[in-house]
From TrEMBL, chain A:
Keywords: Protein transport, Transport. Pfam families: ESCRT-II. This is ESCRT-II complex subunit VPS25. It comes from Musa acuminata subsp. malaccensis (Wild banana). Belongs to the VPS25 family. GO terms for molecular function: protein homodimerization activity; structural molecule activity. It comes from the Eukaryota. GO terms for biological process: macroautophagy; protein transport to vacuole involved in ubiquitin-dependent protein catabolic process via the multivesicular body sorting pathway. GO terms for cellular component: ESCRT II complex. The keyword Protein transport applies.
TrEMBL record, chain B:
This is Vacuolar protein-sorting-associated protein 36. One of its GO terms (cellular component) is early endosome. Its main location: cytoplasm. It comes from Musa acuminata subsp. malaccensis (Wild banana). It comes from the Eukaryota. The lineage of its organism: Eukaryota, Viridiplantae, Streptophyta, Embryophyta, Tracheophyta. SUPFAM superfamilies: PH domain-like, Winged helix' DNA-binding domain. The keyword Coiled coil applies. It holds the Pfam family EAP30. It is found in: Cytoplasm; Endosome. One of its GO terms (biological process) is protein transport to vacuole involved in ubiquitin-dependent protein catabolic process via the multivesicular body sorting pathway. GO terms for molecular function: phosphatidylinositol-3-phosphate binding; ubiquitin binding. Component of the ESCRT-II complex (endosomal sorting complex required for transport II), which is required for multivesicular body (MVB) formation and sorting of endosomal cargo proteins into MVBs. Keywords: Coiled coil, Cytoplasm, Endosome, Protein transport, Transport.
Amino acid sequence: MQRLGNFKLPQFFNFPPFFTLQPVKETREKQVQVWKQLLLDYCRSQKIFVIGLEEDFPLFSNPVIERSLSHEAREVFLSALISEGHAEWMDKDHRKCLMLWLRLQEWADYILNFVKDNGLQDGVMTIEEMRSGTETHGTELAGIDRGLLLRVLRLLEQKGKATIFKGTSADDDGVKFSV
Amino acid sequence: MAANWLPPVSLTASGRPVFLPGEVERCLLPAVDLESENPGLAPFRSGLLVLTSHRLLWIDEQSAAGFAAPLAAVVHAYPPKKSIRSMFASPRIRVQVSVSPDGRIVEDGVRSEVITVVMRGKNDPDAFYCRLLEVLRSRQWEAAVVAEKRNTDSGIAEPPMAAAARVRMPVVGVSGILRKEQELWESTDKSLQEAFQDLNALMSKAKDMVQLAEKMRLKLLSSSSASSNADDEEMGSKQEMQDWLLSVGIVSPVTKESAGALYHQQLSRELADFVKLPLERAGGMIALVDVYCLFNRARGTALISPDDLLQACTLWEKFDVPVMLRKFDSGVMVIQSKARRDEEVFARIASLAQKPDALRTGISPSDAALTLGIAPALAKEHLLTAESKGLLCRDVSPDGFRFFINLFTEIDPSDIYMIKNNGPAHVWSSALSLSG
């Protein structure tokens, strides 16, 4: 079985037509579905939050069969994710894409559940602790993109579920949950 | 009573005209009147008309008087009129001559008058007219002038007979050749002018014909839509009329409503018969352009136009023939054997696409062409159609354009790692692992 790092690739990754944007409607729909799944799974497992469209993103090419996705194909697959809320363009030139294998709201719910499950309400956590602390080790939160985390926390703040504190430095920024 | 608006001519003792040096008699017509358009000038009545190479002579044998008009003064000779009236009247040939201010007929006169040659006797006006034109064309009076000039220049006083003899054969020396060339050009020019006059006449007739044909066409059109109880005879003659129109190049107006003009029907059947053998050889499908070439080559003469071919093919829909015309999305048109339906072709493509090599590297249009026994362009059309039906999928790379069996259908989006057993995906997967 082929791997990209520690990620197991499906066999279809070696199917050359996989890397050609299919013109026939039904075939393309299938192709888009598969690529969406693949992209999300890969990014989730590798904790990749940002994909640069013009960069050598490993999933976009298969050197074994000497094929890689065209720019158009990449845009098509990512746009499909974006329309589902599973990704966002980070710039208007569509060069960088934020991957959201959990949608923003799903992230918010995840954090709240995490807080409840670990009895962390009423306490204050720093942003950094959330990202790399022992409590979040092994969870989705470990290694989360800082910018993304802040966005989710602000979302929670708007709903009155959290309060963000600005610390003396970025490392000290904290949040208090009121679940 | 002769008027003297024509210069006199000396006659010999026996009443024959005295000819100029080099002048040759060309035509004699008895009982001819010469009339001038000028009513003040009395006509010459019933004399002998002598056409020579130099002049038009009129001789009254009774009074032994002769008169001449130099041909050099002739501007134009009108052909004899052909009309109902002229059939019963004496033929007339009108000749336009240039005149001096005081009415004498001279070459290069300032104005012109028309003299009418009225043939009272039993004469053929056309023959005379032809002769007159020939004489006018050859302009032999000019040759005489040049020869005389040459004589005086060189200072040799040649006896008139010798000079005349020499002039009779103007084709000597370079000047003779040049002169002959000049005569040729002038005669060609004149005949071209006449031809164009004829052409104009023809063109106006052609216009009439086209108008007539249009009227007929409209009549056919109106009557065909109006009448529903036309009997056979009427239909037969209508059919004939359509065929005539078609042979003149006018498309039958009832083509769309009925089964088309008889010509196209017959052609259509002939084509269906002809195309059977080539179709078999070509694997059930031939490009229309190829059929056009084959069919015309077989016909030898009586070639058909591309439009005729297309018409003939479209008529197949109305008949029960085992062939059909098919147009691909790309615009390519082929003739296809109905027996060799798409399903059969797709089955062959599918089996080709699932061979071990094809599973790994796919099939190109030329691979398919080889296997299917058809031209690569047609093979590509088949592959594209198979793709559009979901049978194949494409692989575009720097290596080229290739088609694979469509495994996307085999993928379960909820589990993209799973490969169904006993499916083409499984076969593919095994083929892959075998090759390493």
